[in-house]
Amino acid sequence: MGKKKKTNPFAAIGNYFSDFGTAVVKGDIGVKLSLLFMGVGYSLKGQWLRGILVTLIEIGFVIMCIFYAAPNLAKFGTLGTVQYESYLDPLTLQSTVNDYDNSFLILLNSIIALFLILCFVLYYIHNIKAVYELQKLKEKNKPIDTTKDNIKSVVGKNFYVTLLSLPTIGVILMNIIPIFVLISIAFTNYDQSHMPPNSLLDWVGFSNFKTLFTQGMGNYFGYAFGKILGWTLLWAVLATLTTFMGGILLAMLINQKGIKFPKMWRTLFIVAIAVPQFVTLLLVRNFFADSGIVNTICSNIGLTDLLRNMGLIGKNLTYIPFLTEPHWTKVMIILINIWVGVPYQMLVATGVLMNIPTDQLESARIDGANKWQVFWRITMPYILSIQGPALITDFVKNINNFNVIYLLTQDVYITPDQYLANANAKEVDLLVTWLFRLTNEYYNYKMASVIGIIVFIICAVFTIVSFSKLISGDREGVYQ
Fold first, then answer.
1. From the first residue on, what is the mean pLDDT of each consecutive set of 10 residues in the chain (480 residues)?
2. Max Cα separation, the chain?
3. pTM value?
4. Are 466 and 237 a contacting pair, CB within 8 Å?
5. Distance between CA 305 and CA 320 in Å, rounded?
6. Long-range contacts, stretch 115-121, CB < 8 angstroms, 24+ apart
7. Fold category of 217-288+323-471 in CATH
8. Domains of the chain: which residue ranges?
9. DSSP label of 2
């Protein structure tokens, strides 16, 4: 098999615009008129319905620019200048609000307008190139699709485009545009002291990023970011590896010959999956509370006294601080996550183990390999080749694992570190829970947006690098 030719994305972009230039230079009167009136080229070549639709799109774009884009983009550089004011009208004796500028709406509408302009520019270039392609077909005396043919195409072979239009619009509205809004807020002073519409926002450049990465008098975000980033990465590694390896070992144990009632054990773990995660976490949080049932049992059997004598808990404590002391809490979070995550990984590993080529296992045993060697040389490489992409996804998911951390520690854990408290953070926070706390409790949207960008960069870089390493090389047929 020949090697696949690698495509250069920059070369493709260059060709896209060079083809547009060729169409403009070599195009006939229809192409030239389409530069101003987009639907003329189609109409002159017999596709009059397509020409009308394109013209209506152009008219709609012009109206959008005049009445929507222009008023918002004119204020985009300042995010508004008219402050919100409420005063008593002496004539009506009613409270009246002035015609103020809402900085957030200006920001949001400007981003939407810029996105629409970008989409129209790309469509405009595509339109000119499409008209030029019709010109070349006409010059070669090849048939050109009529209006009837175009309608059949929309409901026929190209019907998938029609079906995907609404989901694409939904993705743009619910994912793409909010991402750009998030990025933009990171460069503003949007916080509790500057809340639209009562206050105006201002652009502050990279000062929020400087705040996050530095530490100085009155600024503890740099200190908090370093500690939370380290714990986030450590948590993601441990949570991923413990559940992954635990699921594999549990699946091998249950499927091992000689184990009695394997279906019963497997069913018990499946029941653990069926219980909603937030219910499990809230119950476990109550169990391990300072006055919870676990502490009561530990105190009754003397375990609390033993740990106190060993110096593992404070001398003045009458309970084990499972979820109220930094080190204890981090260990408990990882252990509880194993209980929550292993059953699912067990099911996945069970399916993979059932498909390991038995001839390789038998050959290894005949060659004298013991169980440990078979596991590390055959079983694990096969599982990793199948579950590699899922393992990468699990790592990224654990970086953003909001439920486990927040539900176990909210309203329970209080940080003793005053520097972290000044940055509205806790030792057990992940970047994502810190972000949530900044927005939901302290309304510090600017710093939350900066953290959101950092989380996105970490996840994107790790995913790209990991997948590029995973798919590199020719691995086809290794386990055939």
1. 51 73 86 88 82 91 95 93 82 79 94 93 90 83 62 56 72 84 93 90 93 83 93 94 90 79 79 81 90 91 90 88 92 91 86 77 75 79 82 90 90 89 92 93 93 92 84 52
2. 100
3. 0.83
4. no
5. 9
6. 115/172, 115/176, 115/177, 115/180, 116/61, 116/64, 116/69, 117/65, 117/69, 120/61
7. MetI-like fold (1.10.3720)
8. 17-205, 217-288+323-471
9. P
